[in-house]
Design goal:
The protein has about 575 residues and is α+β, with helices and mostly antiparallel strands. Helix content is about 35%, strand content about 20%. Helix 8 packs antiparallel against helix 9, helix 8 packs parallel to helix 10 and helix 10 runs parallel beside helix 12. The protein starts with a helix and ends with a strand.
């Protein structure tokens, strides 16, 4: 279907009149309203970023290149005249990209369809509106009045649709959507929605949106994260990297308005230590808690660097920032992997470095505990989960532990899977309560309890996991004690439970190395697993690839049966 410009303008004008908003136009000489981040222009990452944008400007854009990056390079050229960079080619590129994007959206609307921005429940509205808003704000003088009108109409409708999901529409056609997580400040979608609204409100100086963000959306974040002591995310460590955008939003809002949400509660500051301790001693992997959809193997990536960089920048006067800077300088991410992440890594940092010393870290708000025998790379490290199970990307892993010493010794089978999103009990190191051959699932919206002591190098964790089964009358009680003797590199796990007839408790541990039966117990690589109670349990070994070799690429599960309670010792050796 051929759409003339005249028809498009008529459609856009109709959309614009249908939206009741504050006046968008502002005096050009008062801009920019979206602050340019302070940039480290003498860094290797900046040189790579400039090359990345120059490559796009020459007609060879890399994967996921955005108009925001071109607009940012324009601002940098203007803000740092000593660099002697011609800014105008970047301006033309950014404007051209946004204009093409808006026109494609208008064409889709004219054909009775939804534009790209509404895909996946508006998940990507944050970065997409970021490109539009920054280009609109930073290059306002170079836009034609017609371009401004088209961009304004599109942005207004997109953001209105997010917050009015049942009445969402494009053109004259209704396009309601689920409203997924529009009111859930613990979810990654929410950060995208608020970012889009905030940045467009700043760029357009639409007081309605700015007041809405300030009075309705940001307070939810403040209240929610005040209840997450210790940092981290209840979504787990996979989707928890979305806090890079949360902390970025904090920085941009602070720099634009002077309101510093990162200081409203300790979550942002404490997340620095959370991620330091969630990182294994070799500083290249992290605790795989919850869905690991991007990369099932739990290796550190650009996103973790970005999250830490934002948190450190917001807390540069705190001791946590020095520890965060140590982590940034010593972890395995020596070079940012993907070009589209480079613009996030050029924030100016002038912060001292201090190595962490604490050997136990407990994040009560997530229920995640981490401990290690030392800060040497050959240390023994462990994680344990007992807390809230309330988010969709969290797993049925209450009571689960992982063990690492130079490599994984005991860990969720998810890291060996193709998808990384198996949430059920069977892939985690817990007691599986079997009925009719299937594990009884842990209950969503449950809260397990954890306490611990750390005396003379011996960490003792006490977890009451009964509430994880509050929906099943067949499991009245389950407690797990884990004792980690750091100097001896040993663990003892003691499970007690009260279950109904017909329920079989099966103690299970997933391991990367093929298990071998020995006189002492079961050996899986450098981990010796010694059943104490019962002394001679039934032992079964499952090779995961035998179930589905395309999904489960490796890994084994050891199962102990026949116990009315279980006591199991584990020894890490050479």
């Amino acid at each position: 279907m051929h759409i003339t410009l005249k028809v498009i303008v008529l459609i856009v004008s109709t959309m614009y009149l249908a939206i009741h908003t504050a006046t968008l136009a502002v005096a050009a000489n008062t801009r920019p309203f979206i602050p340019t981040p302070p940039v480290e222009t003498d860094s290797a990452d900046f040189d790579r970023f400039k090359h990345w944008v120059d490559q796009a400007e020459s007609g060879r854009p890399g994967y996921n290149f955005s108009a925001y990056e071109a607009a940012l390079m324009y601002r940098i050229a203007k803000d740092y005249p000593k660099l002697d960079i011609d800014a105008e080619p970047y301006a033309k590129l950014a404007i051209s990209m946004v204009d093409s994007y808006v026109k494609a959206a208008e064409t889709a609307v004219a054909q009775g369809n939804r534009p790209e921005i509404s895909g996946d429940s508006y998940l990507h509205i944050g970065p997409q509106i970021r490109s539009l808003a920054a280009t609109y704000d930073w290059l306002y003088d170079q836009l034609t009045p017609e371009q401004r009108t088209h961009w304004e109409v599109f942005a207004e409708q997109a953001i209105w649709n997010v917050w009015n999901h049942q009445n969402a529409k494009w053109g004259n056609n209704p396009f309601p959507w689920s409203g997924w997580s529009r009111d859930n400040p613990g979810n990654n979608y929410y950060y995208s929605f608020v970012t889009a609204t905030m940045l467009w409100g700043l760029a357009s100086q639409n007081k309605t949106w700015l007041d809405y963000v300030r009075k309705n959306r940001l307070p939810l974040l403040v209240t929610y994260f005040n209840k997450i002591p210790g940092g981290g995310s209840q979504e787990g460590t996979g989707y928890g990297t979305s806090h890079m955008e949360l902390f970025r939003m904090y920085r941009e809002w602070r720099d634009a308005t002077g309101e510093d949400l990162s200081k409203s509660n300790p979550h942002c500051r404490e997340s620095i230590d959370y991620w330091i301790h969630a990182t294994v001693p070799t500083l290249d992997r992290f605790a795989p808690i919850g869905d690991q959809s991007r990369d099932s193997t739990a290796q550190l990536y650009d996103y973790h660097e970005h999250l830490m960089l934002e948190a450190v920048y917001l807390n540069k006067d705190k001791p946590e920032a020095a520890r965060g800077n140590w982590w940034l300088k010593h972890n395995s991410v020596d070079r940012i992997s993907n070009g589209f992440n480079l613009h996030k890594m050029i924030i100016r940092q002038k912060i001292t470095e201090a190595a962490p010393t604490t050997l136990v870290y407990y994040a009560k708000g997530t229920g995640h505990l981490f401990s290690r025998s030392s800060w040497d790379k050959n240390a023994t490290w462990m994680s344990f989960v007992a807390g809230p199970y309330v988010e969709s990307h969290a797993h049925q892993d209450q009571g689960a532990f992982s063990i690492y010493n130079e490599k994984w010794l005991a860990v969720t089978e998810n890291i060996h899977s193709h998808s990384g999103i198996h949430q059920d009990v069977d892939v985690h190191n817990v007691v599986a309560f079997m009925r009719n051959g299937k594990p009884i699932p842990q209950a969503a919206n449950s809260h397990s309890k954890l306490t611990y002591t750390d005396v003379d190098g011996v960490l003792t964790i006490q977890a009451d996991l009964s509430n994880a089964y509050y929906r099943s009358s067949a499991i009245a009680k389950w407690t797990r004690q884990l004792v980690f003797n750091r100097s001896a590199h040993t663990f003892r796990v003691h499970d007690k439970f009260n279950v109904s007839e017909g329920v079989e408790p099966v103690w299970q541990i997933n391991v990367p190395n093929k298990p071998k039966m020995t006189d002492e117990g079961v050996r899986a690589g450098n981990l010796l697993i010694k059943p104490i109670t019962p002394k001679q349990p039934q032992i079964e070994i499952l090779e995961w690839s035998s179930l589905d070799s395309a999904e489960y690429r490796s890994g084994w599960k050891i199962m102990l049966r026949g116990g009315t309670e279980y006591v199991v010792d584990m020894v890490v050796d050479d």
